[in-house]
Amino acid sequence: xxxxxxxxxxxxxxxxxxxxxxxxxxxxxxxxxxxxxxxxxxxxxxxxxxxxxxxxxxxxxxxxxxxxxxxxxxxxxxxxxxxxxxxxxxxxxxx
Length: 95
Prior knowledge:
Layout: H1 19-26, H2 30-38, E1 42-48, E2 57-63, E3 66-72, E4 78-85
Helix pairs in contact: 1-2
């Protein structure tokens, strides 16, 4: 049985997401993930829970057409998490 994933936070309270963990979630070698980071193809979002979700956060990391989402409890333990395959963005219109 695998130990639950617990995320650390830095001195500003920001979550630290290890590249190795994210690469594994996306099913890629670490080199592929780091290359995508260097190319600016990785983005992230942190949403703070409100109401009955207060004290929790939803973390989302998008890389290419994949998105990892996780619900993180106040103690840093990752509860539910999932990987979604997202549709390609529509082409941009050039003026």
